[in-house]
Amino acid sequence: MKFTFVTLFPNLIEPYFKDSILKIATQKGVIEIDFVNPRDFTKNRHNRVDDTLIGGGAGMLMMPQPLDDAIKYIKKQDPKAYIIFPTPSAKLFKQKDAKRLSKKEHIVFVSGRYEGIDERVIEIYANEVFSIGDYILTGGELPSLVMCDAISRNIPKVLGNSSSLEVESYEDHLLEAPSFTKPNIFEKNSVIKEFLKGNHAKIATLKYDLSLLKTKYHRTDLYRKLKTKGKDYEK
Ligand code: SAM
For every one of its 235 residues, what pLDDT tens digit does the chain have, with 9 covering 90 and above? Predict the structure, then answer.
């Protein structure tokens, strides 16, 4: 899978691939990353990429031409490249999107800066638009990285143990049960005693019940959607 980041600030993104799981994935060739800087496509004397808002308003907007040429450059090399614009005014990016998008061959993230991107560029090129949360960041680099990371760990061979994907939060609308490692007692707090007894069927049932409780407490929206596998949980 290839990820291309269209960004004015590649240095904000590149270091993330210099360590840990995504470093290994790039070294193994499971994922490939590339950067395209809209500033390299400017046609004005001062290499400007932003301009004032038509109709008035505070701040500056990324102008269409450099972004248009940058995306055309990418599309010329790979017409099937799948273009995603991170934007706060879009639907939320979810785990199911990460899974679905992990099947693509080439994803392009186009990062906005300033007050964002001229809407016409988004209209012309976006295959999808996503927000990563109900807050405003200074640019699209972090959202692009967040989505890239979440997508990558669903690509086969990125994680050492892919079975860990099956029991994580948001599978079946459930949050993951509490987990513990050694020591059995830490600062006078014991792990859940049942976890120490080695009865795996009992541990699995307990974990499921704890998942339900956690979901009910933290995320009532997900709890309502739960398929309770035959159990009669209150709605
Ligand atoms: N004026 C825009 C608005 O009110 O919707 C905000 C622009 S924001 C300062 C600049 C860029 O950061 C956006 O174009 C987008 O690429 C990115 N961005 C900021 N917050 C985001 C979020 N919650 N999700 C996804 N992208 C975000």
Answer: 999 999 999 999 999 999 999 999 999 999 999 999 999 999 999 999 999 999 999 999 999 999 999 999 999 999 999 999 999 999 999 999 999 999 999 999 999 999 999 999 999 999 999 999 999 999 999 999 999 999 999 999 999 887 777 767 887 789 999 999 999 999 999 999 999 999 999 999 999 999 999 999 999 999 998 865 555 455 4
Domains and CATH numbers, the chain: 2-152 (3.40.1280.10), 169-227 (1.10.1270.20)
Going by alpha carbons, the residue nearest to atom 19 of ligand 1 is: 137
Mutate to test the pocket of ligand 1, among 137, 142, 144 (most ligand atoms within 8 A of CB): 137
58 lines ligand 1 (CB under 6 A): no
pTM over 0.85: yes
Rounded Cα gap, residues 134 and 92, in angstroms: 8
